[in-house]
Amino acid sequence: MGMAAAILLINKVWTQYSTSPTITSVESTHYPIWNIPFPAVTVCQVNKVHLSAAVELYEQEFSQLLSEKEYWAFVSQMAEIIQPEGVDMLQLDLNHIHEVLRNRSYNMETLMLRLTQTCSSMLIKCKWRGQVTSCSELFSMHKTDAGFCCSFNYHPPGAPDSMKSVPRRVNGAGYLTGLSMLIDPRLEDYYAALFSFYGTQILVHGNQDYPEISAKGILLSPRKEAFLQVSAASTYSTTEVRALSKEQRQCLFEDEQTLGYDTGESGDYSYSNCLIQCRMKHMADLCRCVPYFYPTGVFNNLYSPTFVPGLDDNENAMMCDCHPTCSDVTYSTEISEAPFFKSPYDVTNFYKEVDITNHSIIHVYFKEMSVMRFRRDVIYSWNDLLASFGGIVGLTLGASLLSFVEVFYFFTVRPACDLLLRRVAVKSIRILPASAAKRSAPPPYDWVF
Question: What is the number of other CB atoms lying within 10 angstroms of the CB of residue 182?
C-alpha cells in the first residue's frame, strides 16, 4: 500500500512538472512607464466608401468603361465585403467588372485603398507629447480587419527594414504627455458604412499586433471629446524558463519567434499575428484563395482539444499551434467623454483656427506613471522535483532516497564484489605448490565483508 501510494503521488507531481512547471507572480507594482513602449493607436472610419473619392475615381478611370448604374451598384457593396452577411452581387456582371478592374490594374486591395478616406482628410490636427505635430508624420495607412485604417506607432510584421523604427515612448502620465487627435468624420461623404451610426472606431493595441477593430474597437461619435486612459502590464520570463520545452512553458522567446508561414521574420511574432496567419492558411486550404477582408464563421473560431458542453461547432474550427510570447506588454483602456463644441471660455489653441462642425477630439495617454510588472518563473526545478520525490517516499514508506541507494547496493554492488573476491582468492590458492599450499593453508574462515 505504501509503494502504491508513493507511485501515485510521484506520478501526480511528475504530471504537474511536465504540464505546468511555471508560475507567474507580481514582481513590482511600480514599474516605470518609460520602460515599455507607448501603445499603437488605430483610427478607422465607419464609412468605407468616401463619396467624393468614389466620384473622382469614376470620372478619372471608369466613366468610359462602366455605366453609372453598374459602377455605383458595385461600389455600394464594397463595405459589405468586409463583413459579408449577405452580399448580393448576382445581379451584376462580375466578369465584366473584373475585366475592367484588371485592365486598369486594380484589385480589391488597391480599389478599397482608393475609396477609403485618407488619413490627411480624417485627422485634421495632432499633438504628441504636448507638441503639435503633423498627422502625416505620426499616422500611416495600414490593413485591419475593418479595411484600411490610420495607425500610429504600429510596426507590422514583415515590414521592410527601411520602415522599421523603435516604438515611441513617454516618460509621464496624463493627456499632455500622450497623443491628441482632432478628427473629422466627413459625414457629408458617407456612402457605404459598416454600421448604422456615424463616427470612428479607435483601437489601442500592441506595437506589432494586427489591429482587430471589429472585436476590440471603441466608438467615438461626432461632436465628442474623449479621454482614453491606458493601463499596461509587462511580463517577462527568467532564464530558468528557457531550459523548459515549448510544450512545458507554453510560450516563445524572442529568438524563437517566427510566424512560420509565408512571411514573418524572427522578432515579428505575436500571439494575435499567429492566429491571423493561421486563419489565412485555413482560408487558402479550404477556399484556394485568401480574401483581403476576413469573412465570419469558421475562420474566427479556434478548435478546443477538450470537450466543452454547449460548443456545437468545434469540429469546424481552426487548429492553430500558437503560443503567447514569454515577454510581452498588454494594454487595457478606460474611456470618458463629453459633448464637444467651440466654447468661448476655452483657452486652448489646439483647434482655434478650425471651423468645428462634426469634429471630435480624443486624447490617448497613460493613466499612471507606473505599471504592473509580472515575472514568469519555474515553480518546479530538478532540485524541487528531487525534494518532492524524497518527501513522498519518506511519507509513504518511512524511507529516504538513500534507502533505495542502499537497497541497490545490497542487491547489486555487494554480491558482485563478493563474487569477484572469491574468484581472486581461489585463483591465488591454485597457483601455489602442493607442499607450500599445505604449509601455508590458512585456517578455515567465513568470508565477511
Answer: 21
433 Cβ contact list (under 8 Å, min separation 6): none
- 378-417 core/surface letters (b: 16 or more CB in 10 A; e: else): bebeeeebeebbeebbeebeebeeeeeeeeeeeeeeeeee
Contact by Cβ (8 Å): 214, 392: no
How far apart are the C-alpha atoms of 165 and 178, rounded to whole Å? 19
Which helix (H) or strand (E) covers residue 370, if one does?
strand 370-378
Between CA 3 and CA 399 the distance in angstroms is 11
Residue 216 zone, left/alpha/beta (φ > 0; ψ -120 to 50; rest): alpha
Give CA–CA dist 102/61, Å, rounded: 12
Alpha carbon 95 to its chain's center: 39
Measured distance CA(394)–CA(396) in Å, rounded: 6
Q: What is the pLDDT of residues 319-371, one digit of tens each?
A: 777 778 888 899 999 999 999 887 777 777 788 888 888 999 999 999 999 99
Give the E-state strand segments of 58-178 in sequence order. 123-128, 131-133, 139-144, 147-152
Length of the chain: 449
Of the segments 66-80, 93-107, 215-229, 269-283, which one has the largest average pLDDT value?
A: 215-229
Place of cell 458604412: 193
Helix (H, G, I), strand (E, B) or coil at 64: coil
Q: What are residue 349's DSSP bridge partners?
A: none
Q: Are strands 179-183 and 123-128 parallel, antiparallel or unpaired?
A: antiparallel
Confirm whether pTM is higher than 0.90.
Answer: no
Residues 6+ apart with CB under 8 A from 31: 234, 370, 371, 372, 373
Q: Which three cell numbers stand for residue 84?
A: 459579408
Residue identified by cell 500610429 is 152
User: Would you say 350 and 132 are in contact if contact means Cβ atoms under 8 Å apart?
Assistant: yes
Q: For residues 237 and 373, is the Cβ–Cβ distance under 8 A?
A: no
Buried b (16+ CB within 10 A) or exposed e, 207-219: bbbbbbbbebbbe
